[in-house]
Design brief:
Layout: H1 2-16, E1 17-26, H2 28-31, E2 40-49, E3 59-70, E4 80-90, E5 97-107, E6 116-132, E7 135-146, E8 152-165, E9 170-182, E10 196-202, E11 205-209, E12 214-224, E13 233-237, E14 239-244
Length: about 240
């Protein structure tokens, strides 16, 4: 009993404030060579801080910072960098938070080719953290502004989850997001398009904890109307290691 209580305390501390570095190998060329020129590693950094008890007028909820760096270039050079961050806060007692989010990034091309921007996106909405059958969840609904040449005003819905299994020797985690965007983004390639596009991204993860800091596992990247626009759901699992600070 004492052993389980100690594990639970360690897990709760890790959930309350944690930093982690993940290295993934993405074999998507082997799985889908028609859409992917090569396999590549990806490096992730994540900092998460859960809500802490606070009696002040402004009560801060969870804070999240994530950075992703894809390495598909020659000799493992960077090909894409993406960052997203969010902060929840409230001025009242019910556990319904206001949420602000930002995301953006860039693609880095081969010498002589053209790079690209991942347009800045700013979101404002509500987020509700809750627990269901020992699963920790957080659901949010946001209105987003994406800074295309022709700006897009949209809806973004997200849900995050985490669950520990077998005395927290295994973690199940991840999130799914669904959103809309303008088909016409103000570029020559999209000028003749009209209406909204609905996109979906998910990243369910499983981690086997070797010890308190080191884990091995996998993340499954799910893309719909993101990498291609032909209505195909693309599924790319990875092999990964994780180090928690």
């Amino acid at each position: 009993m004492c052993h389980r209580l100690l594990i639970l305390m360690v897990a709760c501390c890790a959930m309350a404030c944690s930093q982690q570095l993940q290295l993934h190998y993405d074999p998507r060329h082997w799985l889908d060579p028609a859409h992917n020129a090569k396999n590549f590693p990806t490096l992730y950094f994540q900092y998460f801080k859960a809500e802490t008890p606070d009696s002040s007028f402004i009560k801060l909820g969870s804070f999240l910072l994530q950075m992703q760096c894809d390495l598909p270039g020659p000799q493992g050079n960077i090909g894409k960098f993406f960052i997203q961050t969010s902060q929840a806060l409230r001025f009242w007692d019910p556990k319904v938070f206001l949420e602000v989010k930002y995301s953006g990034g860039l693609g880095i091309a081969e010498p002589g080719a053209y790079g690209f921007y991942i347009a800045n996106s700013y979101s404002l909405g509500v987020v509700v953290p809750f627990q269901w059958n020992d699963v920790f969840l957080s659901a949010s609904l946001d209105f987003s502004y994406t800074a295309f040449a022709l700006p897009s005003h949209d809806v973004l819905a997200s849900i995050y989850w985490w669950k520990g299994l077998w005395d927290y020797s295994v973690d199940l985690a991840g999130d799914v997001q669904i959103w809309t965007q303008n088909e016409n983004q103000g570029t020559s390639l999209t000028a003749n398009l009209r209406g909204k596009r609905t996109s979906f991204y998910g990243e369910p993860q499983i981690w086997f904890n070797v010890d308190r800091s080191f884990s091995v596992g996998s993340k499954v990247n799910l893309y719909y109307n993101i990498l291609t626009l032909d209505g195909t759901l693309q599924i790319y699992p990875t092999l990964a290691v994780r180090y928690r600070l």
